[in-house]
Amino acid sequence: MYIVAFSVAYVVFRKYCREGALGEMNQDVSTDLFLYAIIGLILGARIGSCLLYEGSVFYLTHPWLIFWPFRNGSFTGLPGMSYHGGVLGAFLGVVLYARKSGYRILDLCDGICVSVPLGYTFGRLGNFINGELWGRCTGTSYGMIFPYAPSFSTSEEWVRKAAENAGIAYSNGSFVNLPRHPSQLYEAFFEGVFLFLVMWFVARPLVRKYKKGRGFLTGAYFAGYGLVRFIIEYFREPDSQLGFVIALGKESEPTALFLSLFNISMGQVLCFIMMVLGAFLMIRAGRLEPTVYKKKGGRR
Description:
Largest sheet: 2 strands, antiparallel
Strand content: under 5%
Helix content: 55-70%
Number of helices: 9
Distance between the termini: 36 Å
Number of strands: 6
Strand order of the largest sheet: 1-2
Number of domains: 1
Order of helices and strands: HHHEEHHEHEHHEEH
């Protein structure tokens, strides 16, 4: 799914380039840019996952295992990739390429941010296929049981009630795997398809019509993704090792249930930062001269 995601994003980016948005950028240059961004994304996503979501000091004391794909004699791949770490890593990759090639950083970021959402859809579909990053428990008809999600003891009243609402038979003291929101599919649609439509058919035309400066599309993506993901996090169970990093609701346990708007996950904290940064970039872009995509020493 990573390969499909990168491929789809690249196709959209080339469409963006053919419209003259980045001057004379050819296919070879586009490929080099994506290579830098992808390497940065993978490095940032893995390191970010270890530092932000691991919830322990294991990788701080064993940094050589961050990219080691084996654990206890078994192949595990890279178990854990952080979206926000990936964004930072990809940005650093773009910065390095901009310094090498002479393109302006925000010009490149604008093009990539228009292209990324549709590809991101497939990353979330991969999460769904793997049965990972499941949502919170629900008694709705579209709730799904994920095989790797933890089961809960029916000695808890809320578990018995949830099982009864879902029509699941149980015996006293047994453990049941409750239906959950397919939050991966929510994210695939809203963070992927929906956000792409907004970026391509709303934000991009706004830049041309109102002659917005560079960085506007980057800001629109940050603000849009941050807002959509912040809302969807209420349907997604927080990482078990972290729980809620801000628990201001009257109840915060169990984390598998939605109990309060004021119980905030790590993902929501990072998305709030994205929204603030996105708003800043959009306001700043409105004060700059209209975007002129060119290379140093080159022509428009």
